[in-house]
Write a structure and sequence with these properties.
With 422 residues, this protein is α/β, with parallel strands linked by helices. It has helices at 100-103, 146-149, 159-164, 222-234, 249-260, 273-282, 295-300, 316-324, 364-377, 394-403, and strands spanning 20-21, 41-42, 50-58, 67-74, 80-89, 115-122, 134-137, 174-177, 182-184, 196-200, 204-207, 241-245, 265-270, 286-289, 306-311, 326-334, 352-356, 386-390, 408-412. It folds into 2 domains: 4-220 and 381-412, Medium-chain alcohol dehydrogenases, catalytic domain (Quinone Oxidoreductase, Chain A, domain 1, Alpha-Beta Complex), CATH 3.90.180.10; 233-358, NAD(P)-binding Rossmann-like Domain (Rossmann fold, 3-Layer(aba) Sandwich), CATH 3.40.50. Strands 5, 6, 7, 10, 11, 18 and 19 form a 7-stranded mixed beta sheet that branches. Strands 14-13-12-15-16-17 form a 6-stranded parallel beta sheet, with helices on both faces. The structure holds nicotinamide-adenine-dinucleotide and zinc ion (2 copies).
């Protein structure tokens, strides 16, 4: 099983600066993306009238620090919206470009795909949102393919092109840097490690003005992913059992959703004791250190196994463990994004289901308001995972995320109103 969605395409037919070939695919992946035949030349966004110059965190080399630079964007297209970002979560997926192979055709890039902010201007065809709306920005989808039309935008046939290439479906989503080069500016349709983000109106979820907007961005990806795996894909019901591998924001959102669903057994495994303590606080009924020589045995605890499991680690032996801890019948949900292949003995699947879920299989405009209601009622306290940083502290935020010290870094862009939480 290959997590091909996140693999590098390594197309190196570069064009002169200022012009870009629209996105084209390796033929083996063509069935799940844009037609490989689309290759006409189109103008990059910034070559329209200059709309804005602002600070953005740019990753230029897979092993370099983020640099906060000034970038310039061109005028909005008819269905686009300019969002002044107030906060943006750092999701582990933002660090995919730390892999050299994946970074090959992606950098320089403005990552960031858990943005929240205020709409500052709109293209002339925009009807779903208005200037001044408070919004959470979620992933991009086409609205036209069979998946989108059947209410499953996370499985949009253009998901990869629109979200993971960094430049959007047509390959034109770029900003211009101060030194004059192209910087990919449509990571997950938003590239929101920045003071401003250009977004298609379909990616936006309007939220109530009374909410702490700067903390709401993680609903757009990691919280939606963990909670959605439990609520939308597993449809966990009272009395069921679940094992969750990885206690980052995705895994801990799943813990909260499992507790809210009435699960009676919620076992969590992670490498960091501090994260396991937080898992217990949020609803885990027991925890197992990932370094334990018999994680599967500890989770089964002499019984027949759990009804459901969730892997958020993307580590192949852990994914195998997530399948091995299931009773029969049982269902494993994988969400980790990485480069590892998964090889398993087919017999391990006897009576068990395994699926890979994107973005919690959510329709963001329906699911995020539901998550906000859960937060208001106290059953999804995802703000407990958050520590805030200035945009200029992005490298510290990354270090704290990787060391396990911070579960969910949120970068704040407003220099005047900065106040570190918690
Ligand atoms: N499928 C999707 O739509 C989607 C959406 C968001 C995030 N993701 C992916 O989900 C994963 C989790 O994201 P996150 O932001 O929570 O990341 P994270 O890095 O904060 O959390 C991952 C956790 O896994 C733990 N871990 C690593 N190896 C382990 C092991 N051997 N045993 C037990 N625990 C182990 C780490 O200690 C860490 O706490 C990432 O791979 C991310 O890219 C996927
Ligand atoms: Zn679609
Ligand atoms: Zn994410």
């Amino acid at each position: 099983m290959k997590l091909w969605l996140f693999r590098s395409k390594r197309t190196s037919d570069r064009l002169p600066t200022g012009w870009h070939r629209t996105f084209s695919l390796p033929s083996s992946r063509a069935e799940n993306d844009r037609p490989a035949s689309i290759s006409h030349l189109v103008q990059p966004t910034y070559e329209r009238d200059v709309l804005k110059t602002f600070d953005a965190a740019v990753l230029r080399k897979h092993d370099a620090a983020f640099e906060v630079e000034q970038v310039t964007i061109g005028d909005l297209r008819p269905n686009e919206v300019l969002v002044r970002i107030v906060g943006v979560g750092m999701c582990h997926t933002d660090l995919l470009a730390r892999d050299e192979d994946f970074a090959y055709d992606l950098l320089p890039l403005i990552p960031g795909h858990e943005g929240s902010g205020v709409i500052e201007s709109i293209g002339h065809d925009v009807t779903l949102v208005k200037i001044g709306d408070h919004v959470v920005i979620s992933f991009d989808s086409c609205t036209r393919c069979a998946s989108c039309l059947s209410g499953a935008p996370a499985y949009c046939s253009e998901f990869r092109a629109r979200n993971v290439t960094g430049r959007g479906a047509e390959g034109t989503g770029v900003a211009r840097s101060a030194v004059g080069d192209d910087v990919s500016n449509r990571w997950f349709g938003q590239s929101s490690f920045a003071e401003y983000s250009i977004v298609a109106e379909r990616n936006l979820v309007v939220v109530d003005r009374s909410l702490p907007l700067e903390l709401m961005g993680p609903l757009g990806c990691s919280i939606q992913t963990g909670a959605g795996a439990v609520l939308n894909t597993m449809r966990l019901s009272p009395g069921r059992s679940i094992a969750i591998f990885g206690a980052g924001a995705v895994g801990l959102a799943a813990v909260m959703a499992a507790k809210a669903s009435g699960a009676t057994e919620i076992v969590v495994s992670d490498l960091h004791e501090s994260r396991l303590e937080l898992a217990l606080e949020l609803g885990a009924t027991s925890v197992v250190l990932g370094t334990d020589p018999d994680v599967v045995g500890r989770i089964k605890n002499g019984g027949s196994g759990v009804d459901y499991s969730l892997d958020t680690t993307a580590v192949a032996p852990v994914m195998t463990a997530a399948i091995s801890v299931l009773r029969v019948p049982g269902k494993a949900v994988l969400v980790g994004a990485g480069m590892a292949d998964l090889t398993i003995a087919p017999a391990l699947l006897a009576g068990r289901e395994v699926t890979y879920v994107l973005e919690g299989a959510a329709v963001p405009q329906l699911f995020i308001p539901r998550l906000i209601e859960m937060w208001r009622s106290g059953s999804l306290p995802f703000d407990k995972l958050i520590r805030t940083y200035r945009l200029s502290e992005i490298n510290l935020a990354e270090r704290d995320s990787l060391s396990g010290a911070t579960v969910k870094p949120v970068l704040l862009t407003d220099r005047d109103e900065f106040e570190r939480r918690p």
